[in-house]
Amino acid sequence: MNRYLLLSLLSLTALFSLLLALMSGSIQADSAALWQSINNNGDPILRDVVLQLRLPRVLAAFGTGASLALAGAMMQVLLRNPLADPYILGTSGGAAVAALLAMLLGSTGLIIDVAAFGGALVSTLVVFTIAQSGLDRAPGRLLLTGVVIAAGWGAAISLILALAPEHNLRGMLFWLMGDFSFASRAAPSLVLAFITIVIGVIIAPALNLLATGDQQAALLGVAIRPMRALLYFLSSLLTAVAVTTAGTVGFVGLVIPHLIRLIGGSDHRTVLPCSALAGGSLLVLADTLARTIAAPQQLPVGAITAVLGVPLFLVLLHHMGTNKRSGS
Predict the structure, then answer these.
(1) Residue 214 belongs to domain with CATH number
(2) Residue 134 and residue 109: Cα distance in Å, rounded?
């Protein structure tokens, strides 16, 4: 599909998902009431609900989805592995351990966010320090290091949950499965996603070459080690901000880049901006379902993305297998 046509369709999808999310909830609002609320001419209660509660949550969901999709697309280039996702190198595990420890100590709000971000950065530095000697040769060392570190964080998470008091478990589990109930700061994920798209489009030719293999890319003038370091830094930072905003939300970074490559090709001038739009839209729709499908009870958004992501990923795998057989 043509790049500009795909971008236009995904932009309309993103706008639709945002409007649907703003209109949906315990207080329903049609398009006219929503417009009046935004212009401060409508029902003051509805205006407060839309502007103070729904809009920050919707923007946070969009920014988080865009960040995860961008991180997934970059991880797949960095590791040359189609199954790579934003959480594969242990960034989310470090954030989760730090956040759960903060919850265990009775912390709330901003302190948990700071702890999660710090844990993500510590995990990133540990993996990068151990594996940096392999960045210019092969992605296998980085992948193996990340998987081992992630397994260690997973064991620590299990230990924390086993020792945590019962009154803390529900909040911890919701955070681990993804939750936008207290996500009120959308700016970090939105700004970082936008900056990453700009950088990604600029370096897209190098990413296209790097995806074909280090040797071919080096022969054509790509500086392998700096490019790999940049990809690792950006994808880790995107993941850290996303995890800080909403906890662990799976499948977005794994499925969305595959879907975009299937529809629009593998040129990263298309893959990166389209992945951001599609990932943001998917997570906004998933969060809308999470807070409305069993209202007034809210479901963890990570469970919704898993329900949507598993069949979609299986369809993609089937389609890829069919294409390979027909191509052979």
Answers:
(1) 1.10.3470.10
(2) 38
